[in-house]
Every structure is written in structure tokens, then in C-alpha cells.
Write a structure and sequence with these properties.
The chain is mainly α and 89 residues long. It has one domain. It is rod-shaped, with a radius of gyration of 34 Å. It starts with 5 loop residues before the first helix and ends in a 14-residue tail after the last helix.
């Protein structure tokens, strides 16, 4: 990386100064990109957590519905609260 443009040469920059200036410029640009990338990742992480929470809720609801359906199937349509304990004693 040397002084490629006429402006850089006209400014009297040495090859080393030119390389350092270009290196510093290259280092400062990725910082903004990294900050933007981190912000995007943070947003994606929040979205992922929300999505996971919704999936867990859906699975619990489906599990509860299945358990209730199995309970009804086992006890028949005459299921009562308390499970009919005390019958025939």
C-alpha cells in the first residue's frame, strides 16, 4: 500500500506515512460495521429469545391439551371433578 493518487504524492507523504494513513482509515471503518453488526445480532438474539418463548408456550399448551384429551379418554365422557372417588366404598 503506497501513495497511489496524485493528491497523496502532492501532499508530500512518504510511502510509510501513506501506508499508515490507509491502515488507520481501514481500521476505523470496520468499527462502524462491527457496531452495526453487533446491533443487528442483538436484535436477532432478542427475536430468537421471543421466538423460543413462543415455541415453549405452544408446546406446553399442546402438551396440556393432549394430557386433557387422554384424561377424558381414560375416564370416559362422564368425568367429574374429583375423579369420582368414594364410589362403592
Amino acid at each position: 500500500m503506497g501513495c497511489d493518487s496524485l493528491e497523496e504524492r502532492a501532499a508530500g507523504l512518504t510511502q510509510r506515512e501513506c501506508a499508515l494513513a490507509k491502515h488507520e482509515a481501514a481500521l476505523s471503518e470496520p468499527e462502524a460495521e462491527v457496531d452495526e453488526g453487533c446491533a443487528m445480532l442483538g436484535q436477532q438474539e432478542e427475536e430468537l429469545v421471543t421466538w423460543r418463548e413462543k415455541k415453549v408456550e405452544e408446546r406446553w399448551r399442546e402438551s396440556d391439551e393432549r394430557a386433557w384429551a387422554l384424561t377424558l379418554a381414560e375416564t370416559g365422557s362422564n368425568a367429574t371433578v374429583g375423579g369420582g372417588e368414594g364410589e362403592g366404598g
